Amino acid sequence: MIKLMLLAGTGGFLGTVSRFAASRYFAEHFPSAFPYGTFTVNVVGCLLIGLIYGIAEKGQFISAEWRLFLTVGFCGGFTTFSAFAVENMSMLRNNDFFNFFFYTGSSIFVGLLATFVGIMVIKMF
Question: What is the residue range of 12's domain?
């Protein structure tokens, strides 16, 4: 269990550092009101997790440990949106349309609501 936590944690650290570097690069080189760094990181993270899961489903190309390091660790640290996307793809693949729409809608709505509440709480103090 400790080995798995270290794999996920190391991947998460590298993903987080990569996200930070990418966001900094875009902020410095493409200043804009549009969050190009975050948008790019989310799209790249989705592509990466899709590639990793696609490779993993094809056979024994990636061990369970490497998959954990790359998906939960790196992609999880790089962007949580990639995990959101792969979970939704799984629901669609399983024709679980109710949970797909509920999960997608509630994730967006509750995420925005939580952000709003957090801002309002801080403004109160």
Answer: 2-94
